[in-house]
Design goal:
The C terminus is likely disordered. By secondary structure, the chain is of the alpha/beta class. It starts with 18 loop residues before the first helix and ends in a 10-residue tail after the last strand. It is built from eleven helices and 19 strands. Helix 5 packs across helix 6 and helix 6 packs across helix 7. The strands form four sheets. Strands 7-6-5-4-3-2-10 form a seven-stranded parallel β-sheet. The radius of gyration is 22 Å and the shape is globular.
Length: 491
């Protein structure tokens, strides 16, 4: 959803205001009533090919500034090395249809090679990747990236750029009509499906690829008399659901194993349940984004407003109904230095952990604004709170998993699998951590910043990970140090 991130000036903010669009949303969409702590226990969990329960923690990785021969050059191997070194195992990689297919039916082999090179770097550091076919304000026809100009049809409706509020451009008539044509025109439907078939054919079975995000933050065209919430639910039900089923068929004809990530419109960020229907595929992930209109415009977090609770209650309805896991594809405020942002990150991390199988923050870069890191490579203020101990993969049935940021203690309880893999993998941020296990299990040091728990089949296992220990205790407890050096993970 975010605009171009400028990283040349570490303290320069990346501006993305939502004054016009945000005012419409705020006026029309009131938060739903929510319990103080909505339960996510009925939301299924993401799994890997061994049947282990996955938790994804990571960041969006992108290069929106370069295209053509320079496409993806802002992404380096060091991005994935640094991700893993700080305790993250996941990246949402932005790719663009306008680079993939600059002319109808002509797919860029050079672009596909560049995407593969990035995926190879991710595999080297054992970072799982979701390939996101990204669009912002539809694409180049409106000064952004995404859907090619040759696939953009506006019926000569007007478009006015909003340099200080780019998200408001989604509400321009030409942009809205372009989405309608994408969803409804048969030739554009087929072109979009072919693009996905090309991507899935090329990257099926790549060791880094966990899945595919079929389109970023889709929008649409309201009908006369519709308010924004009503329009969003109709677009999701009548246009996005059929589109996702078409694209699922296109991907499955090339890749039978990857997870398919489907997004609602961005309106869910205001605590509005989606109108998406069933996507007929056995490996679907619901992938909403987690942004607040006021905070996107630069405001501080208001703990009393109830936004996180309303969002959590609304966003868990779809996965509970359709029995699919949740991975939040983007989140994070424009300005993390405001007085209540420490509280925001603590509240947000707790909420995401209650119902989600993971998340990707926005965005992994060095600079100001949304960037995770400053110019020196250190976390920007309060973003260090995203780096917690967690279980990347649990070989068994998870009963509970939580981290207490105040005490610095992570707790995991699970019943070990009776069949298949018996290896549970823990990820640890830099620092020194004591791991204590109760049950028939042993702890082994993995690659730097990681540990493995090998459990007896069917036994109930409790794992405690505590920060700050300096004593190595053999037997049921061991100490693992996080590190900035990461070797390839064992299988």
């Amino acid at each position: 959803m975010r605009g171009t991130v400028h990283t040349d000036e570490p303290e320069g903010p990346v501006l993305r205001t939502t004054l016009a669009a945000g005012a419409v949303v705020a006026a029309l969409l009131a938060p739903t009533n929510a319990d103080a702590h909505p339960s996510g226990q009925d939301v299924p969990r993401l799994t890997d090919r061994y049947g282990r329960v996955l938790t994804l923690r990571g960041w969006n990785v992108e290069d929106k500034a370069h295209r053509g021969e320079q496409a993806l050059t802002a992404i380096t191997e060091g991005d994935f090395r640094d991700l893993r070194a700080k305790g993250f195992d996941f990246a949402r990689l932005l790719v663009f249809w306008d680079d993939l297919e600059p002319r109808p039916g002509r797919y860029s082999e050079e672009y596909l090679r560049r995407v593969r090179r990035v995926l190879d770097w991710a595999a080297r550091y054992d970072v799982r990747v979701v390939v996101d076919l990204h669009q912002d304000v539809f694409g180049p026809a409106f000064g952004h990236r995404g859907i090619p100009e040759w696939a953009t049809r506006t019926d000569s409706l007007p478009f006015t750029a909003h340099p200080d509020d780019w998200f408001a451009e989604y509400f321009e008539p030409a942009v809205q009509r372009a989405f309608t044509h994408l969803y409804e025109d048969g030739d554009l439907r087929r072109a979009q499906a072919r693009a996905w078939h090309v991507l899935a054919t090329r990257f099926a079975h790549h060791p880094a690829v966990l899945g595919y995000d079929l389109i970023n933050e889709p929008m649409g065209e309201p009908r006369p008399g519709e308010d924004l919430a009503t329009a969003a639910r109709r677009i999701e039900h009548d246009q996005l659901t059929p589109m996702y089923n078409r694209l699922a068929d296109a991907v499955r004809s090339a890749d039978p194993d990857a997870w398919l990530f489907v997004e609602p419109t961005p309106i869910v960020g205001e605590g509005v349940p989606t109108g998406l229907g069933r996507v007929d595929d056995p490996k679907v992930v619901y992938a909403p984004h987690f942004y607040n209109t006021a905070m996107e415009a630069g405001a501080d977090y208001d703990p009393a407003a109830g936004w996180i609770q309303a969002y959590e209650e609304a966003v868990t309805r779809y996965p509970k109904e359709y029995k699919v896991p949740v991975v939040v594809g983007e989140w994070g405020p424009l300005n993390s230095e405001l007085p209540h942002m420490n509280r925001f990150y603590r509240d947000a991390m707790a909420s995401l952990g209650r119902y989600g199988s993971g998340w990707a923050g926005y965005v992994w870069c060095r600079g100001g604004g949304y960037c995770a890191l400053d110019g020196t490579g250190a976390f920007r203020p309060n973003k260090e709170l995203t780096a917690e101990p967690y279980a990347e993969a649990v070989a068994g049935t998870v009963h509970s998993a939580s981290y207490d940021a105040t005490s610095g203690v992570y707790r995991l309880t699970y019943t070990a699998a009776r069949h298949g893999s018996h290896v549970t993998e823990l990820s640890l941020p830099p620092g020194r951590w004591r791991i204590t296990v109760r049950g028939s299990a042993t702890v082994r040091r993995g690659t730097a910043g990681r540990a493995r728990v090998l459990a007896a089949p069917g036994d109930r296992i409790s794992v405690n990970v505590t920060r700050g220990s300096s004593t190595l205790v053999r037997g049921s407890s061991t100490v693992v140090r996080g590190s900035s050096t990461v070797a390839p993970s064992p299988s």
